[in-house]
Amino acid sequence: MLAPNPAVLRRALDGYLALAADEDPAAAVALQNAAYTLCVLTGTRTVEEAVSAADLLDARRMGPAPSSPRTFIASTVELGSGRTGAVS
User: Fold this and answer.
1) Is residue 79 part of a domain?
2) Is 80 helix (H, G, I), strand (E, B) or coil?
């Protein structure tokens, strides 16, 4: 599974938790949208699973820092019909 950007995941989780704490019925649509976003980011089907996965991913991120940053080099591949595209 691809891991979401930790900052994006943290913002999505914080936004969801803030909306969940708000008892205003007008926030219901925004809460549903925030729950959907969390599910997409974490690859889960329920908001409960999404919150758990976000917490787990955040805990893993807080582990030991890598000794050097990872870099990716883009290259091109043939997509068919003579077209090329960038791959990273």
Assistant:
1) no
2) strand
How many independent structural domains does the chain possess?
1
Q: Give the β-pairing of 75-80 and 83-87.
A: antiparallel
38, with CB counted inside 10 A (0-12, 13-18, 19+), is buried
Distance CA 82, CA 37 (A): 37
Residue 34: count other Cβ atoms within 10 Å of its Cβ. 22
Residue range(s) defining the domain that contains residue 50: 6-67
Q: Which amino acid is at 73?
A: I
Which H or E run contains 32? helix 28-42
Per residue in 34-68, pLDDT tens? 999 999 999 999 999 999 999 888 777 765 444 54
Single-letter amino acid, residue 52:
S
